[in-house]
Amino acid sequence: MTIRHLITGTAALALLAGTAFAQDASREETVIFDLDRTITDPANFNWLTDGTGVRRMHGGHQVMWEPMFILNYGTGELDPWLATGFEANDDSTEFTISLREGVEWSDGEAFDADDVVFSVEMALQNEEITAREAATLRGQVASIEKVDAQTVRIALQAPNPRFMVENFGIRIFGSFLIMPEHVWAGEDPATFTFPEPIGTGPYTFTSAATNRAIWDRNDDWWGAKTGFMDLPAPRRVVFLETGGEESRAQLIASNQLDAAQNVTIGTFEAIQAQNPEVIAWHEGYPYAAADPCARQLEINTTVAPWDSAAMRRAVAHIIDRNQIVNVAYEGTTEASRTMFAQYGSMAPFIDAIAEAGYDLPASADAEAGQALIEGEGWTRDGDYYQKDGETLAVEIHVNSASTEYTRTIDVIVEQLQRAGIDARAVPVENGVFWGEVLPFGAYEMSYSWLSCGSVNEPWASMGRYTTGDVVPVGERSPGFNNTSRWSGEAAEAYSAIMDDIEGRALGDPEIPALVAEAYQYLDAEMPFVPLVQAAKLIPFNTTYWEGWPTADNYYNHPFFWWNHAHQIIHNLEAAE
Protein backbone atom coordinates (compact mmCIF):
# COMPACT_ATOMS: atom_id res chain seq x y z
CA MET A 1 0.00 0.00 0.00
CA THR A 2 1.36 3.42 -0.90
CA ILE A 3 1.57 6.52 1.27
CA ARG A 4 -1.00 8.15 -1.00
CA HIS A 5 -3.54 5.42 -0.27
CA LEU A 6 -2.97 5.82 3.44
CA ILE A 7 -3.49 9.56 3.44
CA THR A 8 -6.00 10.45 0.73
CA GLY A 9 -9.25 11.69 2.25
CA THR A 10 -7.80 12.07 5.75
CA ALA A 11 -5.52 14.47 7.58
CA ALA A 12 -1.85 13.85 6.94
CA LEU A 13 -1.21 13.85 10.67
CA ALA A 14 -3.38 10.76 11.00
CA LEU A 15 -0.34 8.92 9.71
CA LEU A 16 1.37 9.93 12.93
CA ALA A 17 -1.29 8.43 15.21
CA GLY A 18 0.17 6.60 18.17
CA THR A 19 3.40 8.58 18.15
CA ALA A 20 4.57 9.77 21.56
CA PHE A 21 5.00 13.53 21.24
CA ALA A 22 7.05 15.76 23.48
CA GLN A 23 4.22 18.32 23.34
CA ASP A 24 0.84 18.86 21.76
CA ALA A 25 0.77 20.67 18.44
CA SER A 26 -2.19 21.29 16.16
CA ARG A 27 -2.06 21.22 12.37
CA GLU A 28 -1.90 25.01 12.44
CA GLU A 29 1.25 24.78 14.58
CA THR A 30 2.87 22.08 12.44
CA VAL A 31 4.84 22.50 9.24
CA ILE A 32 5.05 19.42 7.03
CA PHE A 33 7.89 19.01 4.55
CA ASP A 34 8.04 16.54 1.69
CA LEU A 35 10.62 13.78 1.96
CA ASP A 36 11.49 12.22 -1.42
CA ARG A 37 13.05 9.03 -0.04
CA THR A 38 12.49 6.21 2.40
CA ILE A 39 14.29 6.45 5.74
CA THR A 40 16.10 3.16 5.51
CA ASP A 41 17.48 3.17 9.06
CA PRO A 42 15.33 5.46 11.25
CA ALA A 43 17.36 4.88 14.41
CA ASN A 44 20.73 5.74 12.84
CA PHE A 45 21.81 9.40 12.88
CA ASN A 46 25.48 8.87 12.07
CA TRP A 47 25.81 11.16 9.05
CA LEU A 48 29.51 10.36 8.61
CA THR A 49 29.22 6.94 6.96
CA ASP A 50 27.33 5.17 4.16
CA GLY A 51 23.80 6.42 3.62
CA THR A 52 24.74 9.87 4.91
CA GLY A 53 22.27 11.77 2.72
CA VAL A 54 19.32 9.88 4.17
CA ARG A 55 20.57 10.26 7.72
CA ARG A 56 20.66 14.03 7.58
CA MET A 57 17.83 14.96 5.16
CA HIS A 58 14.77 13.98 7.19
CA GLY A 59 15.32 16.89 9.55
CA GLY A 60 18.78 16.35 10.98
CA HIS A 61 20.57 19.14 9.17
CA GLN A 62 17.44 21.22 8.57
CA VAL A 63 16.30 21.69 12.17
CA MET A 64 18.77 20.00 14.58
CA TRP A 65 22.37 20.38 13.34
CA GLU A 66 23.11 24.04 12.71
CA PRO A 67 25.87 25.24 10.36
CA MET A 68 28.76 27.57 11.08
CA PHE A 69 27.84 29.86 8.18
CA ILE A 70 25.24 29.97 5.40
CA LEU A 71 26.15 31.11 1.90
CA ASN A 72 23.56 33.63 0.81
CA TYR A 73 22.88 33.08 -2.89
CA GLY A 74 21.33 36.52 -3.15
CA THR A 75 24.27 38.49 -1.75
CA GLY A 76 27.15 36.06 -2.19
CA GLU A 77 28.09 36.62 1.45
CA LEU A 78 28.57 34.08 4.24
CA ASP A 79 25.88 34.76 6.85
CA PRO A 80 27.20 33.87 10.33
CA TRP A 81 25.36 31.29 12.43
CA LEU A 82 27.25 29.16 14.98
CA ALA A 83 30.34 31.19 14.09
CA THR A 84 30.52 34.97 13.99
CA GLY A 85 33.38 35.32 11.53
CA PHE A 86 36.81 34.12 10.39
CA GLU A 87 40.18 35.44 9.31
CA ALA A 88 42.62 33.94 6.80
CA ASN A 89 46.35 34.48 6.61
CA ASP A 90 47.93 36.01 3.50
CA ASP A 91 48.33 32.78 1.52
CA SER A 92 45.05 31.15 2.65
CA THR A 93 46.79 28.28 4.42
CA GLU A 94 45.44 29.12 7.87
CA PHE A 95 41.94 30.09 9.02
CA THR A 96 40.95 31.34 12.45
CA ILE A 97 37.25 30.90 13.24
CA SER A 98 35.40 32.80 15.95
CA LEU A 99 32.51 30.91 17.52
CA ARG A 100 29.35 32.52 18.82
CA GLU A 101 29.10 32.80 22.61
CA GLY A 102 26.22 31.22 24.47
CA VAL A 103 25.55 28.36 22.04
CA GLU A 104 24.29 25.20 23.73
CA TRP A 105 23.53 21.64 22.75
CA SER A 106 19.89 20.72 23.35
CA ASP A 107 20.87 18.81 26.51
CA GLY A 108 22.25 22.02 28.02
CA GLU A 109 25.96 21.36 27.50
CA ALA A 110 27.96 24.25 26.06
CA PHE A 111 28.93 24.20 22.39
CA ASP A 112 32.50 25.44 22.11
CA ALA A 113 35.89 25.03 20.47
CA ASP A 114 36.35 21.57 22.01
CA ASP A 115 33.42 20.26 19.94
CA VAL A 116 34.80 21.74 16.74
CA VAL A 117 38.31 20.40 17.31
CA PHE A 118 36.96 16.97 18.27
CA SER A 119 34.70 16.73 15.18
CA VAL A 120 37.38 17.82 12.73
CA GLU A 121 40.00 15.52 14.24
CA MET A 122 37.49 12.65 14.11
CA ALA A 123 37.23 13.16 10.34
CA LEU A 124 41.00 13.52 9.93
CA GLN A 125 41.90 10.41 11.88
CA ASN A 126 39.33 7.93 10.56
CA GLU A 127 39.63 6.88 6.93
CA GLU A 128 36.51 4.73 7.24
CA ILE A 129 34.41 7.90 7.58
CA THR A 130 33.12 8.18 4.02
CA ALA A 131 30.79 11.20 4.01
CA ARG A 132 31.70 13.62 1.22
CA GLU A 133 32.12 16.53 3.66
CA ALA A 134 34.45 14.50 5.88
CA ALA A 135 36.49 13.25 2.92
CA THR A 136 36.83 16.80 1.60
CA LEU A 137 38.02 18.06 4.96
CA ARG A 138 40.48 15.17 5.31
CA GLY A 139 41.97 16.03 1.93
CA GLN A 140 42.52 19.67 2.87
CA VAL A 141 43.26 20.06 6.58
CA ALA A 142 46.69 19.48 8.11
CA SER A 143 45.76 20.25 11.72
CA ILE A 144 43.31 22.06 13.98
CA GLU A 145 43.92 23.64 17.36
CA LYS A 146 41.88 25.31 20.07
CA VAL A 147 42.96 28.91 20.68
CA ASP A 148 40.40 29.52 23.41
CA ALA A 149 36.85 28.41 24.22
CA GLN A 150 35.41 30.44 21.33
CA THR A 151 38.24 30.26 18.80
CA VAL A 152 39.80 27.54 16.65
CA ARG A 153 42.65 27.73 14.16
CA ILE A 154 42.83 25.40 11.15
CA ALA A 155 46.04 24.85 9.16
CA LEU A 156 45.68 23.53 5.60
CA GLN A 157 47.84 21.18 3.57
CA ALA A 158 47.90 23.71 0.71
CA PRO A 159 46.53 27.19 0.00
CA ASN A 160 42.77 27.23 -0.48
CA PRO A 161 40.95 30.57 -0.57
CA ARG A 162 37.61 28.68 -0.84
CA PHE A 163 38.09 26.67 2.33
CA MET A 164 35.39 28.24 4.49
CA VAL A 165 32.60 28.23 1.93
CA GLU A 166 33.53 24.72 0.78
CA ASN A 167 33.50 23.16 4.23
CA PHE A 168 31.48 25.34 6.58
CA GLY A 169 29.32 27.57 4.37
CA ILE A 170 26.66 25.37 2.67
CA ARG A 171 27.79 26.20 -0.83
CA ILE A 172 25.91 23.16 -2.14
CA PHE A 173 23.46 21.10 -0.03
CA GLY A 174 25.33 20.83 3.24
CA SER A 175 28.41 21.57 5.28
CA PHE A 176 30.66 19.71 7.67
CA LEU A 177 28.53 19.22 10.78
CA ILE A 178 29.91 19.56 14.28
CA MET A 179 29.04 16.73 16.69
CA PRO A 180 28.90 16.92 20.52
CA GLU A 181 32.17 15.71 22.01
CA HIS A 182 30.52 14.70 25.28
CA VAL A 183 28.32 12.19 23.39
CA TRP A 184 30.71 10.94 20.68
CA ALA A 185 33.90 10.70 22.74
CA GLY A 186 34.93 7.07 23.11
CA GLU A 187 32.59 5.88 20.34
CA ASP A 188 33.72 4.29 17.09
CA PRO A 189 32.67 6.89 14.48
CA ALA A 190 32.31 4.19 11.82
CA THR A 191 29.75 2.20 13.81
CA PHE A 192 28.18 4.58 16.34
CA THR A 193 24.52 5.10 15.35
CA PHE A 194 23.86 8.20 17.49
CA PRO A 195 20.41 6.77 18.39
CA GLU A 196 19.47 9.67 20.68
CA PRO A 197 20.66 12.56 18.51
CA ILE A 198 21.12 16.04 19.81
CA GLY A 199 22.13 19.26 18.12
CA THR A 200 22.23 22.98 18.72
CA GLY A 201 19.14 23.67 16.61
CA PRO A 202 15.74 24.83 17.86
CA TYR A 203 14.11 21.41 17.45
CA THR A 204 14.72 18.09 19.15
CA PHE A 205 14.11 14.64 17.77
CA THR A 206 10.81 13.00 18.73
CA SER A 207 10.50 9.90 16.55
CA ALA A 208 11.07 8.43 13.11
CA ALA A 209 9.85 5.54 11.00
CA THR A 210 10.66 4.59 7.44
CA ASN A 211 8.14 7.10 6.10
CA ARG A 212 8.36 10.06 8.45
CA ALA A 213 10.40 11.92 11.07
CA ILE A 214 8.98 14.24 13.74
CA TRP A 215 10.74 17.08 15.51
CA ASP A 216 9.41 19.25 18.34
CA ARG A 217 10.50 22.77 19.24
CA ASN A 218 12.92 23.23 22.10
CA ASP A 219 11.57 26.29 23.89
CA ASP A 220 14.85 26.48 25.82
CA TRP A 221 16.82 26.97 22.57
CA TRP A 222 20.07 28.90 23.04
CA GLY A 223 19.32 31.31 20.19
CA ALA A 224 16.25 32.73 21.86
CA LYS A 225 17.94 32.89 25.27
CA THR A 226 20.91 34.86 23.91
CA GLY A 227 18.89 37.13 21.63
CA PHE A 228 20.42 35.70 18.45
CA MET A 229 16.90 35.33 17.07
CA ASP A 230 13.40 34.49 18.20
CA LEU A 231 12.09 30.98 18.53
CA PRO A 232 10.74 29.76 15.19
CA ALA A 233 6.95 29.87 14.90
CA PRO A 234 6.19 26.20 14.15
CA ARG A 235 5.96 24.09 17.29
CA ARG A 236 6.39 20.88 15.32
CA VAL A 237 8.18 19.97 12.10
CA VAL A 238 7.37 16.79 10.19
CA PHE A 239 9.27 15.29 7.26
CA LEU A 240 6.86 12.98 5.43
CA GLU A 241 7.65 10.59 2.61
CA THR A 242 4.98 11.34 0.02
CA GLY A 243 5.65 8.55 -2.43
CA GLY A 244 6.15 10.53 -5.64
CA GLU A 245 4.80 13.42 -7.67
CA GLU A 246 1.16 12.35 -7.88
CA SER A 247 0.94 11.80 -4.15
CA ARG A 248 2.76 15.00 -3.17
CA ALA A 249 0.50 16.97 -5.51
CA GLN A 250 -2.63 15.57 -3.86
CA LEU A 251 -1.27 16.24 -0.38
CA ILE A 252 -0.28 19.85 -0.92
CA ALA A 253 -3.44 20.66 -2.88
CA SER A 254 -5.52 19.36 0.04
CA ASN A 255 -3.45 21.24 2.66
CA GLN A 256 -1.87 18.09 4.08
CA LEU A 257 1.63 19.23 3.04
CA ASP A 258 3.29 22.64 3.31
CA ALA A 259 6.38 22.27 1.14
CA ALA A 260 6.73 19.79 -1.71
CA GLN A 261 9.68 18.48 -3.63
CA ASN A 262 10.11 19.26 -7.32
CA VAL A 263 7.08 18.79 -9.61
CA THR A 264 6.52 19.26 -13.32
CA ILE A 265 4.89 22.41 -14.60
CA GLY A 266 1.71 20.61 -15.58
CA THR A 267 1.38 19.16 -12.09
CA PHE A 268 2.02 22.55 -10.50
CA GLU A 269 -0.64 24.25 -12.59
CA ALA A 270 -3.09 21.50 -11.63
CA ILE A 271 -2.23 22.03 -7.93
CA GLN A 272 -2.79 25.78 -8.21
CA ALA A 273 -6.10 25.27 -9.98
CA GLN A 274 -7.30 23.27 -6.98
CA ASN A 275 -5.57 25.35 -4.30
CA PRO A 276 -4.61 28.95 -5.18
CA GLU A 277 -2.81 29.26 -1.83
CA VAL A 278 0.07 27.22 -3.29
CA ILE A 279 2.91 29.35 -4.66
CA ALA A 280 6.32 28.85 -6.30
CA TRP A 281 9.59 30.76 -6.68
CA HIS A 282 8.20 32.92 -9.50
CA GLU A 283 4.59 34.04 -9.48
CA GLY A 284 4.21 33.25 -13.19
CA TYR A 285 5.72 30.97 -15.82
CA PRO A 286 8.17 29.23 -15.64
CA TYR A 287 7.65 29.31 -11.83
CA ALA A 288 10.88 27.40 -11.12
CA ALA A 289 14.08 28.47 -9.35
CA ALA A 290 17.50 27.89 -10.89
CA ASP A 291 19.31 24.96 -9.30
CA PRO A 292 23.13 25.11 -8.92
CA CYS A 293 23.55 21.49 -10.01
CA ALA A 294 23.47 21.38 -13.81
CA ARG A 295 22.43 17.98 -15.16
CA GLN A 296 24.74 15.71 -17.11
CA LEU A 297 25.23 12.21 -18.46
CA GLU A 298 28.06 10.51 -16.60
CA ILE A 299 30.06 7.97 -18.65
CA ASN A 300 32.19 5.23 -17.13
CA THR A 301 35.44 5.63 -19.06
CA THR A 302 36.69 2.17 -18.02
CA VAL A 303 33.93 0.20 -19.75
CA ALA A 304 34.18 -0.70 -23.46
CA PRO A 305 33.23 0.70 -25.90
CA TRP A 306 32.82 3.88 -23.85
CA ASP A 307 36.50 3.79 -22.89
CA SER A 308 36.97 5.42 -26.32
CA ALA A 309 36.83 9.22 -26.30
CA ALA A 310 35.44 9.10 -29.85
CA MET A 311 32.48 7.01 -28.72
CA ARG A 312 31.79 9.37 -25.83
CA ARG A 313 31.95 12.35 -28.17
CA ALA A 314 29.54 10.53 -30.49
CA VAL A 315 26.98 10.39 -27.69
CA ALA A 316 27.45 14.12 -27.05
CA HIS A 317 26.69 14.86 -30.71
CA ILE A 318 23.61 12.63 -30.78
CA ILE A 319 21.92 14.15 -27.73
CA ASP A 320 19.48 16.96 -28.55
CA ARG A 321 19.41 19.18 -25.48
CA ASN A 322 16.62 21.34 -26.84
CA GLN A 323 14.36 18.30 -26.94
CA ILE A 324 15.21 17.53 -23.30
CA VAL A 325 14.26 21.09 -22.39
CA ASN A 326 10.96 20.96 -24.27
CA VAL A 327 9.87 17.43 -23.40
CA ALA A 328 11.37 16.52 -20.01
CA TYR A 329 11.25 20.03 -18.52
CA GLU A 330 8.25 21.44 -20.40
CA GLY A 331 10.26 24.53 -21.31
CA THR A 332 11.16 25.52 -17.75
CA THR A 333 14.94 25.44 -18.24
CA GLU A 334 17.61 25.81 -20.94
CA ALA A 335 20.35 23.72 -22.51
CA SER A 336 23.75 23.77 -20.81
CA ARG A 337 26.59 25.39 -22.71
CA THR A 338 29.23 23.95 -20.37
CA MET A 339 29.41 21.94 -17.15
CA PHE A 340 28.59 25.05 -15.08
CA ALA A 341 25.39 26.44 -13.66
CA GLN A 342 24.70 29.53 -15.76
CA TYR A 343 24.63 32.10 -12.96
CA GLY A 344 25.85 35.61 -13.66
CA SER A 345 28.87 35.09 -11.42
CA MET A 346 29.97 32.21 -13.68
CA ALA A 347 29.66 34.19 -16.92
CA PRO A 348 33.39 35.08 -17.26
CA PHE A 349 34.32 31.40 -17.26
CA ILE A 350 31.50 30.24 -19.50
CA ASP A 351 32.30 33.03 -21.95
CA ALA A 352 35.99 32.08 -21.98
CA ILE A 353 35.09 28.47 -22.82
CA ALA A 354 32.72 29.61 -25.57
CA GLU A 355 35.28 31.99 -27.09
CA ALA A 356 37.73 29.07 -27.24
CA GLY A 357 35.13 27.03 -29.13
CA TYR A 358 34.45 24.39 -26.48
CA ASP A 359 30.84 25.13 -25.56
CA LEU A 360 28.09 22.74 -26.65
CA PRO A 361 25.31 23.48 -29.16
CA ALA A 362 21.75 23.02 -27.93
CA SER A 363 20.73 20.99 -30.96
CA ALA A 364 22.00 17.58 -32.04
CA ASP A 365 24.27 16.62 -34.92
CA ALA A 366 23.44 12.92 -35.13
CA GLU A 367 25.30 12.49 -38.41
CA ALA A 368 28.54 13.71 -36.83
CA GLY A 369 28.00 11.31 -33.95
CA GLN A 370 27.34 8.39 -36.27
CA ALA A 371 30.47 9.21 -38.26
CA LEU A 372 32.53 8.91 -35.08
CA ILE A 373 30.89 5.57 -34.27
CA GLU A 374 31.61 4.27 -37.77
CA GLY A 375 35.19 5.50 -37.47
CA GLU A 376 35.54 3.11 -34.53
CA GLY A 377 34.62 0.17 -36.77
CA TRP A 378 30.88 -0.13 -36.10
CA THR A 379 28.48 -0.79 -39.01
CA ARG A 380 24.78 -0.02 -39.01
CA ASP A 381 22.81 -3.23 -39.60
CA GLY A 382 19.10 -2.55 -39.38
CA ASP A 383 18.15 -0.66 -36.24
CA TYR A 384 21.52 -0.84 -34.52
CA TYR A 385 25.26 -0.70 -35.05
CA GLN A 386 27.16 -4.00 -34.99
CA LYS A 387 30.82 -4.92 -34.57
CA ASP A 388 32.36 -8.37 -34.36
CA GLY A 389 28.89 -9.85 -33.85
CA GLU A 390 28.10 -7.50 -30.99
CA THR A 391 25.26 -4.96 -30.95
CA LEU A 392 26.16 -1.45 -29.81
CA ALA A 393 24.12 -1.14 -26.63
CA VAL A 394 24.18 0.78 -23.37
CA GLU A 395 22.34 0.73 -20.06
CA ILE A 396 21.73 4.13 -18.47
CA HIS A 397 21.13 4.11 -14.74
CA VAL A 398 18.71 6.71 -13.42
CA ASN A 399 17.46 7.56 -9.95
CA SER A 400 13.75 6.75 -9.90
CA ALA A 401 12.97 9.30 -7.16
CA SER A 402 11.94 12.08 -9.54
CA THR A 403 9.92 12.42 -12.74
CA GLU A 404 12.52 14.93 -13.93
CA TYR A 405 15.24 12.30 -13.87
CA THR A 406 13.30 9.51 -15.53
CA ARG A 407 11.79 11.77 -18.20
CA THR A 408 15.21 13.07 -19.16
CA ILE A 409 16.66 9.60 -19.59
CA ASP A 410 13.59 8.46 -21.52
CA VAL A 411 14.27 11.27 -24.02
CA ILE A 412 17.98 10.37 -24.28
CA VAL A 413 17.21 6.67 -24.71
CA GLU A 414 14.90 7.48 -27.62
CA GLN A 415 17.53 9.73 -29.24
CA LEU A 416 20.24 7.08 -28.95
CA GLN A 417 17.88 4.40 -30.27
CA ARG A 418 17.14 6.49 -33.38
CA ALA A 419 20.88 6.94 -33.94
CA GLY A 420 21.55 3.18 -33.84
CA ILE A 421 22.48 2.54 -30.20
CA ASP A 422 20.37 0.00 -28.33
CA ALA A 423 19.96 2.14 -25.21
CA ARG A 424 17.90 1.15 -22.19
CA ALA A 425 17.00 3.02 -19.00
CA VAL A 426 17.70 1.26 -15.71
CA PRO A 427 15.69 2.97 -12.95
CA VAL A 428 16.98 2.29 -9.44
CA GLU A 429 15.83 3.34 -5.99
CA ASN A 430 17.42 6.46 -4.51
CA GLY A 431 19.50 4.69 -1.86
CA VAL A 432 20.88 2.19 -4.36
CA PHE A 433 21.68 4.94 -6.86
CA TRP A 434 23.71 7.04 -4.42
CA GLY A 435 24.98 4.21 -2.25
CA GLU A 436 25.98 1.60 -4.84
CA VAL A 437 25.72 2.72 -8.47
CA LEU A 438 27.50 6.07 -8.66
CA PRO A 439 30.24 5.89 -6.01
CA PHE A 440 31.45 2.43 -7.01
CA GLY A 441 31.30 3.00 -10.78
CA ALA A 442 28.61 0.32 -11.21
CA TYR A 443 27.25 1.81 -14.43
CA GLU A 444 27.99 2.36 -18.10
CA MET A 445 26.20 5.68 -18.24
CA SER A 446 24.21 7.46 -15.58
CA TYR A 447 22.13 10.59 -15.17
CA SER A 448 23.68 12.79 -12.52
CA TRP A 449 24.78 16.24 -11.45
CA LEU A 450 28.25 15.40 -10.21
CA SER A 451 29.74 18.61 -11.62
CA CYS A 452 27.76 20.44 -8.96
CA GLY A 453 29.73 22.91 -6.88
CA SER A 454 30.64 26.10 -8.73
CA VAL A 455 28.32 28.98 -7.99
CA ASN A 456 30.86 31.81 -7.92
CA GLU A 457 34.16 30.34 -9.19
CA PRO A 458 35.14 27.38 -11.42
CA TRP A 459 37.42 25.15 -9.39
CA ALA A 460 34.70 23.66 -7.18
CA SER A 461 33.19 21.85 -10.18
CA MET A 462 36.24 21.37 -12.36
CA GLY A 463 38.32 20.05 -9.46
CA ARG A 464 36.00 17.07 -9.16
CA TYR A 465 37.46 15.43 -12.29
CA THR A 466 41.15 15.32 -11.47
CA THR A 467 43.21 12.13 -11.62
CA GLY A 468 43.96 12.30 -7.91
CA ASP A 469 40.44 11.05 -7.27
CA VAL A 470 40.59 8.08 -9.64
CA VAL A 471 40.01 4.72 -7.92
CA PRO A 472 39.29 1.29 -9.43
CA VAL A 473 35.74 0.28 -10.25
CA GLY A 474 34.33 -1.37 -7.15
CA GLU A 475 36.12 1.03 -4.82
CA ARG A 476 34.24 4.08 -3.54
CA SER A 477 35.04 7.34 -5.31
CA PRO A 478 36.10 9.94 -2.73
CA GLY A 479 33.30 12.45 -2.29
CA PHE A 480 31.63 11.24 -5.53
CA ASN A 481 34.53 12.86 -7.39
CA ASN A 482 35.49 11.50 -10.83
CA THR A 483 33.14 8.52 -10.64
CA SER A 484 33.72 8.20 -14.40
CA ARG A 485 37.32 7.15 -13.55
CA TRP A 486 38.71 9.52 -16.20
CA SER A 487 42.48 9.09 -16.53
CA GLY A 488 45.24 9.18 -19.15
CA GLU A 489 47.43 11.90 -20.68
CA ALA A 490 44.60 14.35 -21.31
CA ALA A 491 43.27 13.92 -17.78
CA GLU A 492 46.78 14.46 -16.38
CA ALA A 493 47.20 17.68 -18.39
CA TYR A 494 43.78 18.82 -17.19
CA SER A 495 44.67 18.01 -13.58
CA ALA A 496 47.88 20.03 -13.77
CA ILE A 497 45.90 23.13 -14.76
CA MET A 498 43.45 22.44 -11.94
CA ASP A 499 46.36 22.38 -9.50
CA ASP A 500 47.33 25.83 -10.74
CA ILE A 501 43.82 27.24 -10.43
CA GLU A 502 43.30 25.69 -6.99
CA GLY A 503 45.95 27.83 -5.33
CA ARG A 504 44.97 31.12 -6.95
CA ALA A 505 42.98 33.76 -5.10
CA LEU A 506 39.33 34.19 -5.97
CA GLY A 507 39.02 36.82 -8.68
CA ASP A 508 42.49 36.23 -10.15
CA PRO A 509 42.20 37.70 -13.68
CA GLU A 510 44.15 34.82 -15.24
CA ILE A 511 41.65 32.17 -14.16
CA PRO A 512 39.17 32.47 -17.09
CA ALA A 513 41.93 31.76 -19.62
CA LEU A 514 43.16 28.81 -17.56
CA VAL A 515 39.60 27.47 -17.43
CA ALA A 516 39.37 27.58 -21.23
CA GLU A 517 42.75 25.88 -21.55
CA ALA A 518 41.66 23.06 -19.25
CA TYR A 519 38.27 22.71 -20.87
CA GLN A 520 39.80 21.63 -24.17
CA TYR A 521 40.55 18.28 -22.53
CA LEU A 522 37.00 17.83 -21.26
CA ASP A 523 35.69 18.70 -24.71
CA ALA A 524 38.04 16.23 -26.41
CA GLU A 525 37.53 13.36 -23.98
CA MET A 526 33.92 13.81 -22.73
CA PRO A 527 34.05 11.91 -19.43
CA PHE A 528 30.57 13.32 -18.99
CA VAL A 529 28.14 15.10 -21.29
CA PRO A 530 26.56 18.35 -20.04
CA LEU A 531 22.81 18.30 -20.67
CA VAL A 532 20.61 21.06 -19.28
CA GLN A 533 20.46 23.60 -16.53
CA ALA A 534 18.50 22.33 -13.57
CA ALA A 535 15.32 24.04 -12.51
CA LYS A 536 13.38 23.17 -9.38
CA LEU A 537 9.66 23.91 -9.31
CA ILE A 538 8.99 23.72 -5.60
CA PRO A 539 5.41 24.27 -4.41
CA PHE A 540 4.91 26.06 -1.08
CA ASN A 541 1.53 26.15 0.64
CA THR A 542 0.55 29.45 2.30
CA THR A 543 -2.65 28.11 3.89
CA TYR A 544 -0.98 27.66 7.29
CA TRP A 545 2.45 29.25 6.83
CA GLU A 546 3.76 32.37 5.11
CA GLY A 547 7.30 33.64 4.63
CA TRP A 548 8.51 31.04 2.15
CA PRO A 549 11.51 32.07 -0.01
CA THR A 550 10.53 33.42 -3.42
CA ALA A 551 12.05 35.68 -6.07
CA ASP A 552 10.22 38.56 -4.39
CA ASN A 553 11.22 37.44 -0.88
CA TYR A 554 14.80 36.47 -1.64
CA TYR A 555 16.42 35.94 1.74
CA ASN A 556 17.91 32.77 0.23
CA HIS A 557 17.10 30.00 -2.23
CA PRO A 558 14.12 27.63 -1.73
CA PHE A 559 15.81 24.22 -1.49
CA PHE A 560 14.43 23.21 1.90
CA TRP A 561 16.23 19.84 2.00
CA TRP A 562 19.56 21.68 2.32
CA ASN A 563 21.37 22.58 5.54
CA HIS A 564 20.33 26.23 5.15
CA ALA A 565 16.68 25.26 5.88
CA HIS A 566 17.24 26.81 9.31
CA GLN A 567 16.74 30.17 7.59
CA ILE A 568 13.46 29.04 6.06
CA ILE A 569 12.11 27.71 9.37
CA HIS A 570 12.94 30.98 11.10
CA ASN A 571 11.23 33.05 8.40
CA LEU A 572 7.91 31.19 8.61
CA GLU A 573 4.97 32.93 10.19
CA ALA A 574 1.47 31.64 10.84
CA ALA A 575 -0.86 32.65 8.00
CA GLU A 576 -3.52 35.18 8.90
Could you characterize what this model shows?
The chain has 576 residues and is an alpha+beta fold. The protein has a five-stranded mixed sheet with strand order 18-17-19-13-20. A four-stranded mixed sheet has the order 1-10-9-8. A four-stranded antiparallel sheet has the order 4-5-7-6. The longest helix has 17 residues, at 403-419. The protein is globular, with a radius of gyration of 24 Å.
Number of helices: 20
- Quaternary state reads single chain
As residue ranges, the low-confidence spans are 1-14, 17-21
Portion of residues within helices: 25-40%
Mean pLDDT: 92
Globally, the shape reads globular
Q: Output the strand order for the largest sheet.
A: 18-17-19-13-20
Structural class: alpha+beta
Separation of the first and last Cα atoms: 36 Å
What characterizes the major β-sheet?
Answer: 5 strands, mixed
Strand content: 15-25%
- Tally of DSSP β-strands: 24
How large, in whole angstroms, is the Cα Rg?
A: 24 Å
Structure, briefly:
This protein is 30% helix and 18% strand. It has 20 helices and 24 strands. It has a five-stranded mixed β-sheet. Strands 1-10-9-8 form a four-stranded mixed β-sheet.
